[in-house]
Amino acid sequence: MEIERPLEGKKILVTGGTGSLGKTLVRRLLTGEIGVPERITVFSRDEAKQHFMRLEYLHRTAATDEVIYQNSQNVLQFRIGDVRDPAAVAGALGDTDVVFHAAALIQVPSCEYFPYEAVLTNINGAANIVRAIKELRLPVETVVGISTDKACKPINVMGMTKALQERVLLEANRDLANCRIMCVRYGNVIASRGSIVPLFVEQVRNRQPLTVTLPEMTRFLLSLDRAVDTVFAAIRTGRPSETYVPKVAAAKIVDVAKALMGDQELPIIFTGIRPGEKIHEIMVSEEECYRTVERGDYYAILPVLPEVRGDAEFTPALETEYSSKDQNISGDELRELLRSAGGEIERFLTAAG
């Protein structure tokens, strides 16, 4: 059943709220499109990013941003803390209704070189949230964990730790009857920090060779707003222990490079696969597809634990894995998708014609 305005009057905590996804999520929350919250708290460990994010809202007075600006003055708060710290997490969760857990280490090479750091943030961070809600009997109603396609059949540390983050969160529904915990899983966010697209834009601007790992490499592609749409879909219609996956386009990375190149003819250099990198990404595995149902523009992966899933009948939406290697887009269709990311990417493509 869909909840029309599920965040109306709610007290919200966004962990990792100064990251690419977190900032877009906060902006969308401030529009009140699924309810005007009583409070939004950005919880992160980087005081500089919080400072600049606060300044952005203090100076946002344009008429087109009036609703966001007014709401930011009334409801937006900032709190320094680290999801690795149980006491900081417990303090931030007090008097919270809804948690969006976006704090994570997400750079694949970094996690390969510092695997235990990824464990501390990606696994222990989620465990600290669950433990605080359980042990302190906190009145948290909903938790949405932000995951990644790399958590599906993981081969790298980032994916492995995010897969365990999913399980830590989703399993907790067995003991938390009054708290709905879900995850969302999505692919490469076009304009996010560390994405290949901003790198290609910079290389094209400077008329440098474009660096691609392998000719056959593919990725799912979506804008930050589409990622937030997925989070909001889970909030509206998700059930305990489900994982929401958006239906999105995929493309070969070499075609992304060509789409951004436009009419220019720049060389493409193949640099080889990086530590922990996949050739193709998967958002629903072959094993998960038999417990995946369709919810409009999304797939919902039902819980792996039968006692959480229940015995209601359902029709699987997929017969095989949902992989980026299938049904790739290119050319004008790909350029329009990249343009939908907005911001610098849109301005770059518009200027390039």
Q: What proportion of the residues form beta strands (DSSP E)?
A: 15-25%
What's the CATH class label of the largest domain?
Answer: Alpha Beta
CATH architecture of the largest domain: 3-Layer(aba) Sandwich
Oligomer: single chain
How many domain units? 2
| Sequence of strands across the biggest β-sheet | 3-2-1-4-5-6-10-15-14
| Count of DSSP H/I helices | 13
Structural class: alpha/beta
Could you tell me how far the N terminus lies from the C terminus, measured between alpha carbons in angstroms? Answer: 44 Å
Q: Look up the CATH topology of the largest domain.
A: Rossmann fold
Please tell me what the overall shape is. globular
For the largest beta-sheet, the strand count, sense and barrel status come to: 9 strands, mixed
In total, how many beta strands?
16
Mean pLDDT: 91
Radius of gyration: 20 Å
* Helix/strand order, N-terminal first: EHEHHEHEHHEHEEHEEHEEHEEEEHEHH
Helix content: 25-40%
Uncertain residue ranges: none
The CATH homologous superfamily of the largest domain is called NAD(P)-binding Rossmann-like Domain
